[in-house]
Amino acid sequence: MGVVLDNPQGKITAPLLDHTEHPSHKLYVIGITGTNGKTTVAHLLGEVLKEVGYKPFVLGTLNSGNKDLSTPEPLDILKFMNDHLEQGGTHFVMEVTSEGIDQERIKHIDFDVKVLTNITHDHLDYHKTFQRYEAVKQRFMAEGDAHKIYPANFAETSVDFKTKLVGDFNLLNMKAAVTVLRHIGISEKYICEVLSSCRPPRGRLENVEAGQKFMVLIDYAHTPDALQNALFTVKKIAKHRNGRLLLLFGCGGNRDKGKRVQMGRIAGEISDFFVVTDDNPRLEESQTIMDEIVQGIDLHFYDYVLIQDRRKAIEFIVNKAEGNDVIILAGKGHETYQVLKTETIYFDDQEEVTKAILHRLTKECSLNEHEWHDAR
């Protein structure tokens, strides 16, 4: 007997299994929960396990098959696991969200290791209070016989090699991954060799180079804590370059409204200039979202503008940058879409900023040619 699922590829029949037959019993399952860092830690683990010779599958924000669910529905997880087993899979690394825990999407999964990266302000549109949100995360960690790794466990973990990931928050992500790998029994040789050369996952302080002098980074930071951590890191980079930190960000509609004031305050405290724009406004009015962000900005800080259209906002900030500056486009990261009312359109920050850079460089080249001809 099976259950028929609808998906973009057609009909899939997934067997209904009780917990004793669940495919997770035949896989080494690592579950990562926390407000921030889940995707990066999962990515790091997957890269090392693959290099060692295991066959891991990493399930989460980048490949769940549902843009709104980093932790998919139970039958979808079941199919991912069954398919992985059929292909000779050994390890299954998955992001575990608070909604996924609360809605029992991970019920019957036999976890071998559980990791808590951190708990900060997010998803209060769903959980209503931070206490409830925190309780859901802690419940997941407390349940079952899995080996549990908390922030206090990995904070002191030694990382004696340089990495390509920047920022103190990424150092903590690296420590969390190293702690898991050491528990599994991976040799220090592989841990050091792979993680020292490992690049961040897409949209996590991702560098965009299109021939420009100024620096452009794209990051998924969409919570107050993630934005603050990213900006502290980028501020150090900007100071080292003797440039300014230019930020572009927005907040999602029909989501936790309490974040907006906080993120406006953080933007004004750390960045030198910023643009408030659309993220995924969904069914809310863009102007309302931007106005709520502005409420958090210090009254004496004036170096910001509001540009609703994200494409125009990206063009604006690219044209404002000077040679030593660092631009960070925050909030959308790896996402290649934008939700406007009931419509979902294709939109990729990386593509849009690359186009804006190339357009600026073309104009500058043209102006230089005219000046050269005039000089003759």
Structural description of this entry:
The chain is an alpha/beta fold and 376 residues long. It has 2 domains: 2-197, UDP-N-acetylmuramoyl-L-alanine:D-glutamate ligase; 206-363, Protein-Tyrosine Phosphatase, Chain A (Alpha-Beta Complex). Helices cover 42% and strands 18% of the residues. The chain has a 6-stranded mixed sheet with strand order 8-9-13-10-11-12, with helices on both faces. It has a 5-stranded parallel sheet with strand order 4-5-3-6-7, sandwiched between helices. A hairpin with a 2-residue loop joins strand 1 and strand 2. Helix 1 (38-52) packs across helix 8. It is globular and about 70 Å long.
Topology diagram in text:
Layout: E1 2-7, E2 10-15, E3 28-33, H1 38-52, E4 56-59, H2 74-86, E5 91-95, H3 98-102, E6 113-116, H4 124-127, H5 130-142, E7 147-149, H6 151-154, H7 168-184, H8 188-197, E8 206-208, E9 215-219, H9 224-240, E10 245-249, H10 258-270, E11 273-276, H11 286-294, E12 304-306, H12 310-320, E13 326-330, E14 337-340, E15 343-346, H13 349-375
Parallel strand pairs: 3-5, 3-6, 4-5, 6-7, 9-13, 10-11, 10-13, 11-12
Antiparallel strand pairs: 1-2, 8-9, 14-15
Helix pairs in contact: 1-7, 1-8, 9-10, 10-11, 12-13
